[in-house]
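> example.struct
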C-alpha cells in the first residue's frame, strides 16, 4: 500500500511541474539560436602520399563552400602525417583563416578538417 501511495504522490508531483508556467515578456521574446556549429570533413590520402588526389581537394572545396566558411571561423587539422597536414594547410591559405594542427588526434592516412563556424 505504501508503494502505491508513494507512486501516486510522485505522479502528481511530476505532472504538476509542467503546468502553470508564467513567462515574463522578456522570456516570451527569446529568440533561440545556435551561436556555434562544428563541421568535419575527412581528406583521405592514398598510399601515405604527401598530397591528396585532386578529386579529394575538390571535395574539400565543396565542403567548405557548402558550410559557407568565412570570417570568424576556426579550422583545425587532425590525423595524417605532418606532410599531409601541411599540404591541407597550404591549400587552405587563401581563406586567410587561422589553421591549428592536432597531430595526436585522428587516423593515419586521412586528415580530418574540422571547422567551428561562428554564426551572427
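> example.seq
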Amino acid at each position: 500500500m505504501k508503494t502505491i501511495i508513494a507512486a501516486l504522490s510522485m505522479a502528481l508531483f511530476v505532472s504538476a511541474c509542467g503546468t502553470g508556467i508564467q513567462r515574463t515578456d522578456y522570456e516570451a521574446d527569446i529568440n533561440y539560436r545556435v551561436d556555434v556549429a562544428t563541421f568535419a570533413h575527412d581528406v583521405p590520402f592514398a598510399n601515405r602520399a604527401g598530397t591528396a588526389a585532386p578529386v579529394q581537394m575538390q571535395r574539400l572545396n565543396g565542403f567548405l563552400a557548402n558550410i559557407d566558411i568565412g570570417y570568424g571561423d576556426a579550422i583545425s587539422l587532425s590525423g595524417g602525417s605532418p606532410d599531409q597536414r601541411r599540404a591541407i594547410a597550404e591549400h587552405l591559405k587563401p581563406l586567410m583563416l587561422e589553421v591549428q594542427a592536432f597531430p595526436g588526434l585522428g587516423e593515419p592516412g586521412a586528415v580530418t578538417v574540422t571547422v567551428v563556424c561562428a554564426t551572427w
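> remarks
Confidence is low (pLDDT under 50) at residues 1-19.
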